[in-house]
Amino acid sequence: MDVNASAEDRQEPQDDALRLCREAFLDRIKAACSFPAGAEAVREGDKIRLMGTFRDDKGKTVTDTLDGPDTEPELLGHVLASRMLSKESDAPREGKVWLVGAGPGDEGLLTLKGAEVLSRADTVVYDALVGDGILALIPQKAERIFAGKRAGHHYLRQEDTNRVLVEKAAEGKNVVRLKGGDPFLFGRGGEELELLSLFGIPYEVVPGITSAFAVPAYNGIPVTHRDFCSSVHIITGHRRADHTYDIDFDALRRTKGTLVFLMGVASLPDICDGLLKAGMDPDTPAAVLERGTTARQHRICGTLATLAGMCAQTTVMTPAIIVVGKVVSLADRFAWAEARPLAGLRVVVTRHRDRDSSLASMLREKGAEVIENPAIETRLLNEDALCEAADELALGVYSKLVFTSPICVRKFLPILFRDHDIRSLASVRIVSVGDLTAKELSLFGLRADWICSEEDGDGISRGNGRTLILRERTASTAEMKEGCDAIEVYETVNVSEGTPDIASQLRAGEIDLAVFTSVSTVKAFAACCHGEDLSRVRAVCIGEQTAKAARETGMNVRMSEKATLASLEKELEKAAGEHR
Ligand code: SAH
Questions:
Q1: Cα of 264 to ligand 1 centre, how many Å?
Q2: Is the same domain home to 363 and 478?
Q3: Domain for residue 359, yes or no?
Q4: Which CATH number do you get for residue 34?
Q5: Which residue has a Cα nearest atom 5 of ligand 1?
Q6: 232 and 188 co-located in one domain
Q7: Which has the minimum average pLDDT: 29-43, 99-113, 447-461, 478-492?
Q8: Ligand 1 — pocket residues by CB below 6 A?
Q9: Which atom of ligand 1 is found nearest the CA of 291?
């Protein structure tokens, strides 16, 4: 093959598909490098065999062949070019696609395997039904592609989504296709695999927890129960293009099982009507379950005869499922989700990028939906001074060591342990400002001799001997007491990349509370709000300084009595009570 020939030079029978795939191949090569390249395509039934070649920068001629469907000629050209270029790179890698079920919303319902593959993703293609908490787990460096349908958002058509998966994997990427619930249950997961298999791209399916079971469970409805039924059926309420349903209502009645309808809100009156006409008991319990497993979960319970009328009186929030069957009557007895102390609250926790938040876990445990906002990064300062201080501590220069934040602990102790060990602190009294700092110390095997609040400045320097205070750069600039040295251990900078869109969630009324543990978290949150009116934000703060900073931004502030997690928890429960 003449490697310098372009597709246009050839005299081949008119076949648009052959021309398109050759051109796509050459375009992709040209866009990536200046290798002279050529392509040949032949038709074999409804398949095209594309042979590509180029001469690389070492003068070596590289050739490869790929078969693909004649319906996707451009994709075929791109895939072959990407594959060959990726083999040329320093670290050639075969891409792969994981079709992952993200569950119905609550991020705790993502499977371990799903979380594992997500943590290694280079590209994530996600749907509108994927919960915000799960989106927050996408690695910072990963490319995010929204493939759902959401008013006002650009979105991909199904065919384009299918193509994107093939293209990205051909580039050697780990691609995670995140879909709400289970990817194969009314999720078009099967369609997405079709093209991948045609192009020979490796893939795996990671099943997810489907809304059909999880949403009833979060409403206290077991989908089967020996006393009531012996089967459960999942049906789509979606109408066909000709507006008819593909539902055999007679057959459904005969099953005597629990019926779960997905995508059925718009069809609710028709569904109830169809079941009644088929002879189902009008008193059969039935419910619409809205936005299940999230803080906004809500149910409307009635009977087959009354449910449609009840829903016509209000706006049903989507997504929602419809459940019909005697098991629905158990909801009020077994409903556990709304009984949790912080149920119904969507809380933003602004936190440091490099840390998991124990505060977020506590909030989730109590039933809140947490939006983590990793909008702060810390940078180590004064490393030399800290090394020197470590030596002085080991020499017994200081009798007291004050950690003013958990980050001070995390930044300083590894420096201390470079040249010394834990015995260098044997005769030093350790002071922790706040509970969270003490908790961090415990991770290093250290117990604070004294836990004080940030206002307790006087107490800190009380006693004999010298005191070393480790603090953040922006922290109080109050004058140092006699016998006290202070080192600025780190500074805090705001970052916006990879953070949730706080401003638009605030506008949409989707944020019930914001929790702040330091002045820097207040500042980072305010920066994320891009000038939105912050008087709508209800804030719960630890510590007077934090509360003061929040008040200055105009937020509606309440402060925990003490600088402890327990005290914060109490304050949050009060706020939750008021919210409800
Ligand atoms: N594959 C998904 C279903 C996709 S079809 C799954 O296994 O759950 C989309 C439908 O799922 C919605 O119309 C709605 O009926 C249902 N759904 C998904 N998430 C839901 C949620 N959190 N609460 C209520 N219904 C939900």
A1: 10
A2: yes
A3: yes
A4: 3.30.160.40
A5: 186
A6: no
A7: 447-461
A8: 104-105, 129, 180-182, 185-187, 210-212, 215, 262-263, 289, 291-293, 319-321
A9: 23
Domain count, the chain: 4
Q: Can 570 be counted among the known catalytic residues?
A: no
Pick the more confident residue, 566 or 457: 566
Burial of 518 (0-12, 13-18, 19+ CB in 10 A): buried
Are residues 311 and 384 located together in one domain of the fold? no
Nearest CA to 208 out of 106, 138, 110 is that of 110
CATH label of the domain that carries residue 510: 3.40.50.10090
Question: Which residue from 211, 219, 300 has its CB within 8 A of the most atoms of ligand 1, so it is best to mutate?
Answer: 211
Cβ 183 vs Cβ 207: under 8 Å:
yes
Show which of 310, 335, 360 is a domain's final residue: 335
pLDDT in tens, 472-499: 887 555 666 778 899 999 998 888 877 8
- Considering the domain architecture, whether residues 425 and 537 belong to the same structural domain is answered as yes
Can you list the positions of beta strands (E) in 420-512?
Answer: 429-433, 450-452, 466-472, 484-494
Distance 232 CA to ligand 1 centre (A): 16
- Within a domain: residue 4? no
Gap from CA of 402 to ligand 1 centroid (Å): 51
Average pLDDT over residues 372-388: 92
Set 70, 106, 122, 127: catalytic member:
127
Instruction: State how beta strands 285-290 and 298-303 pair.
Output: antiparallel
Question: Pairing state of beta strands 203-206 and 96-101?
Answer: parallel
Q: Is residue 532 part of a domain?
A: yes
Q: Measured from the CA of 179, which atom of ligand 1 is nearest? A: 1
- Asked if residue 398 belongs to a domain, the reply is yes
Ligand 1 atom 24 nearest Cα: 320
* Domain end marker among 44, 66, 87: 87
Domain that residue 309 falls in = 213-335
C-beta separation of 296 from 290 below 8 A = yes
In the DSSP assignment, the letter for residue 326 is G
**d(CA 275, ligand 1 centre) in Å:** 21
The Cα 43–Cα 257 span in angstroms is 52
**What phi and psi values does residue 182 have, to the nearest 5 degrees?**
-100, 135
Q: Active-site residue 127, yes or no?
A: yes
Which amino acid would we find at residue 12? E
544 shares a domain with 465: yes
CA of 165 to the centre of ligand 1 (A): 23
Q: Which of 134, 262, 263 to mutate to test the pocket of ligand 1 (most atoms within 8 A of CB)?
A: 262
- State pLDDT tens for residues 333-365: 999 999 999 999 999 999 888 776 788 999 999
390 and 262 within one domain: no
Three-state DSSP class for 323?
strand
Residue 356 sits in the same domain as residue 274:
no
